[in-house]
Design goal:
mainly alpha, about 75% helix
Length: about 260
C-alpha cells in the first residue's frame, strides 16, 4: 500500500497500466498484422477436415472441450478476485500472498511456450487433461493448506494449468474439426466462458455465510477433477454420411466403385 501511495495512488497506477498496454499494443500490432497476400489458404484435407459450426455443435466433443475452457475461466475469475484476501484471512503475510499470485501469473504466461513443443509429441488431448489435472491439484493444495510449499503448488498448478488449457482447447478444436471453419467454431466454444461470471459471486456468498474459503476451493477442485475425467474420455468425432458435402459423398462413392 505504501508503494502505491508513493506512486501517486491507485488511480495513477491504473492510468500508468493503460498507458503501458497502449504502447505495447502499438508496438505489437505491426508485428502480427497479416498481409493479404500472405494469408494462408486452407487446403481440403478430406471430408472430415472441414466441419461446420452446426455439425461441430452436434458432437459431445464440442461440449467437453467447452467444459474444459469454462472450468479454467471460472477458476481464473474466482482466484483473481479472492486469492490475496483469502490468504491474508488465514494469516498469510500480504507479501507472501502477492508473491504466490505473481508466480501464478508468470506460469500462466510461460506454460503455453513450454507446452507448445510437448503438444507435438503427446497430442492436444493429453495436454488438455494435464492442464485441467494440475489445476485441480493446485486448487486442492489451496484448500488444504496455507504453507509456503502449498502456495507454490497452487501457483504453479493453477497458473500453469490456465496457460496449458487455453492452448490445448485451441489445438483440440483444430484437430477435431479442421481449419476451414475454425474461427466460428472457436468463437462459439468461447461462449462457455460466460460461466466464469458466477464464480466470484458464489464463492463470495459462501465466504459471507461461513467466514472461510477452503470449502469453495475444495468444490472448485472437485469440479476440475470431473472436467479432467470428461476430457480423458474424448475421442475423435466421426461425421455421419448425411453430414458430408455432396461432393465428398460423390468422391467417396466413386472411390468405392473404383475399388
Amino acid at each position: 500500500e505504501g508503494r502505491i501511495t508513493a506512486f501517486g495512488g491507485w488511480r495513477a497506477y491504473w492510468w500508468a497500466m493503460v498507458a503501458l498496454m497502449t504502447v505495447a499494443g502499438a508496438i505489437g500490432l505491426p508485428a502480427i498484422a497479416e498481409r493479404k497476400d500472405d494469408a494462408p489458404a486452407f487446403e481440403d484435407g478430406g471430408a472430415d477436415s472441414d466441419w461446420t459450426l452446426a455439425e461441430a455443435a452436434r458432437t459431445p466433443q464440442f461440449y467437453v472441450i467447452g467444459s474444459g475452457i469454462a472450468a479454467t475461466y471460472l477458476i481464473s475469475s474466482t482466484v483473481n478476485a479472492f486469492t490475496v484476501s483469502s490468504l491474508t484471512l488465514v494469516g498469510v503475510a500480504i507479501g507472501t500472498a502477492v508473491l504466490a499470485f505473481s508466480i501464478l501469473s508468470a506460469c500462466h504466461a510461460i506454460f503455453p511456450l513450454l507446452m507448445g513443443g510437448i503438444a507435438e509429441r503427446v497430442g492436444a488431448k493429453a495436454l488438455l487433461v494435464f492442464g485441467v489435472s494440475i489445476q485441480a491439484v493446485g486448487m486442492t493444495a489451496l484448500a488444504l493448506d496455507a504453507s509456503f510449499p502449498a502456495l507454490m503448488v497452487f501457483a504453479i498448478g493453477v497458473g500453469g494449468g490456465y496457460g496449458t488449457i487455453f492452448l490445448a482447447t485451441t489445438l483440440s478444436l483444430q484437430d477435431y474439426f479442421g481449419h476451414r471453419h475454425y474461427a466460428r467454431i472457436f468463437g462459439a466454444n468461447q461462449l462457455f466462458t460466460a460461466i466464469s461470471v458466477i464464480g466470484p459471486a458464489i464463492v463470495g456468498r459462501v465466504a459471507d455465510l461461513t467466514g472461510r474459503f477452503d470449502i469453495s476451493w475444495a468444490g472448485l477442485a472437485a469440479m476440475l477433477a470431473a472436467a479432467a475425467v470428461g476430457c480423458a474420455t474424448l475421442r475423435r468425432p466421426v461425421r455421419r454420411a448425411a453430414q458430408l458435402a455432396p461432393a465428398a459423398r460423390g468422391s467417396t462413392m466413386l472411390g468405392r466403385a473404383w475399388l
